[in-house]
Amino acid sequence: SSEAACTIGGNVAENAGGPHCLKNGVTLNHILAVTAVLPDGSVVTLGDEVSDRAGYDLVGAFVGSEGCFGVAIEITVRLMKKPEVIRTMLADFTTIDGGARATSAIIASGIVPAALEFLDGPTTRVVESSIYAAGYPTDAEAILLVELDGLLEGIDVDVERVKRICMEAGARNVRVARDDGERLKLWQGRKKAFGAMGRLAPHLVVQDAVVPRTKIPEILAAIHAISQRHGVMVCNIFHAGDGNLHPNIPYNADDAEQSARVHLAMGEIMSVCIAAGGTITGEHGVGLDKMGYMDRIFTPNSLAAMCRLREVFDPERRVNPGKVVPVHSCREWHATPAGRAN
After folding, report:
1. Predicted local confidence at residue 51, as pLDDT
2. Strand-strand pairing, 31-37 and 43-47
3. CA-to-CA distance for 66 and 94, rounded, in angstroms?
């Protein structure tokens, strides 16, 4: 959805995903080699054009390191052939639970969609009121954007199976894009939804937790309860196929009282996702914002291992210091009075 603004280097730094990673994998699955400048000024090449060489997977270590290991200056990617055919469907539901149940049922059927996206009612309504209107039904409480691709032979059978699964889960209607123009319009609403949020408020905070697909209905219910309790609006738009949630809260960051409520709500949302067996990021990274959650999902030994790995690339912590791993897990913390006291 950020294809108009992102860079390949940024994708490598975050191990970015997106709508089509459900079938095609995340950035790491498409990177063969990275040439990088390390913090000491040396230039190294990790990996090569042959993807199954013996030895340690140093590309796997570098991709997703969030700029903490060095700066990528050359990236060799694996190209994929375009699929022979693409079928894009829009299913609309009167309840969020129906859309969530359809998501789990589609995956359980053995069909692997190229993409399986979820937009809730508040999101579809703000999209349809914007210049990015895509023809979404504004009275729906949930819509699924399902895309299948592959060979012509057999794809229409899978389309009918998906339509039947959605109807059995409570969909009012499932329509298939008739041509590329209609398909692109359906995707326009999804890809521009974050921009459309600007109609609601001048600022937007977005989270990126991942939860088991089977927990999506209860997590969405919990998010709604949190939004009601704190008096904030949450718009849910996410990669349903892999449980990668993106709760969005539009707000005015210049309003200190509102900002406080928004950040309390986001903290509770993350806690609910962690408690459900989820994790804190699927593709947006940890950076500074999520460091406080790291010791809730990783043991001290795991965090220490991450610090030791970083020391191999950047022993002096020159690049992107103080990001990703809580500093109290690394040696700088233990050199301070507070660290020694612990």
Report:
1. 62
2. antiparallel
3. 40
Span 20-39, mean pLDDT? 92
Q: What is the pLDDT of residues 286-331, one digit of tens each?
A: 888 888 899 889 999 999 999 999 999 999 888 888 888 877 666 5
Q: What does the mean pLDDT of the chain come to?
A: 90
Are the beta carbons of 97 and 217 closer than 8 angstroms?
A: yes
- Residues 127 and 191 placed together within one structural domain of the fold: yes
Per the CB < 8 A criterion, the answer to whether 260 and 232 are in contact is no
Q: Is position 50 within any domain?
A: yes
- Please report how many Cα atoms fall inside a 13 Å half-sphere around the Cα of residue 127, on the Cβ side: 29
Q: How far apart are CA 311 and CA 68, in angstroms?
A: 10
The position carrying tokens 């589609």 is 106
Tell me the HSE value of 157 on the side-chain side, using a 13 A CA sphere. 7
User: Which tens digits make up the pLDDT trace of 220-269?
Assistant: 999 999 999 999 999 999 998 888 999 999 999 999 999 999 999 999 99
Residue 31 forms beta bridges with which residues? Answer: 77
Task: Assign residue 53 the CATH number of its domain.
Answer: 3.30.465.10
| Residue 3 in domain | no
Q: What CATH number should be reported for the domain holding residue 145?
A: 3.30.70.2190
Q: Are residues 172 and 108 in the same domain?
A: yes
How many domains does the chain contain in total?
A: 4
